[in-house]
Design a protein that fits this description.
This protein is α/β, with parallel strands linked by helices and about 180 residues long. The protein has three helices and eight strands; from the N terminus they run E-H-E-H-E-E-E-E-H-E-E. A hairpin with a 5-residue loop joins strand 7 and strand 8. Residues about 1-20 have low confidence and may be disordered. One of its GO terms (molecular function) is DNA binding.
């Protein structure tokens, strides 16, 4: 016997839009920094300096071990009159990662140092921002499509505020309108 049921009149079930989780009481600023003129090694040290001055603990994430090594060197050599305390998680003794104000890692969040500020360099943003109060996503021309997709996702996510930072001809970043 043939089924007399028809799916033509059934209501369509739509999957909810994916969101990024940010279980934090305040709005989390998610800064999108498009690297147009300089590389992450030149851009990150001043951002790290500002984050530390504001009292943040920072995690710098990338899946590229060579990039993490270059960022480590850039943090060491940033300014002769200052010191940016940091460590690469894969190269320090077990248990010492927790004491690092700035931790460079490929590991997923939450960071071993209890960071409340994430600097994601390349790759893709994580899906969960729990415990973070600020996010910086640095991307280059090769990652523009990924960044656009993440911008749309962040824009639709409650508790997150995307901010686009444009690199000027002078090599500084300004908030785009």
């Amino acid at each position: 016997m043939a089924c007399v049921c028809s799916t033509a009149s059934s209501p369509k079930i739509t999957k909810p839009e994916p969101t990024i989780t940010g279980r934090h009481r305040a709005v989390i600023d998610v800064g999108f920094y498009q690297l147009a003129q300089r590389r992450a090694e030149a851009v990150l040290p001043p951002l790290v300096t500002k984050a530390l001055a504001a009292g943040h603990r920072l995690v710098i994430r990338s899946q590229d071990a060579a990039l993490l090594a270059r960022l480590d060197l850039a943090l060491w050599n940033f300014a002769p009159d200052s010191f940016l305390p940091h460590g690469i998680e894969a190269e320090i003794e077990a248990g010492r990662a927790a004491s690092q104000p700035v931790l460079l890692t490929a590991a997923p969040l939450p960071a071993a140092n209890g960071a409340d500020c994430l600097a994601q360099v390349g790759d893709d943003l994580p899906d969960d921002f729990t415990g973070l109060s600020r996010v910086m996503y640095l991307f280059d021309a090769d990652a523009v499509e990924t960044a656009r997709a993440r911008w749309r996702l962040v824009s639709r996510s409650e508790g997150l505020r995307p901010i686009y930072w444009r690199e000027t001809d002078g090599g500084r970043f300004e908030k785009a309108a």
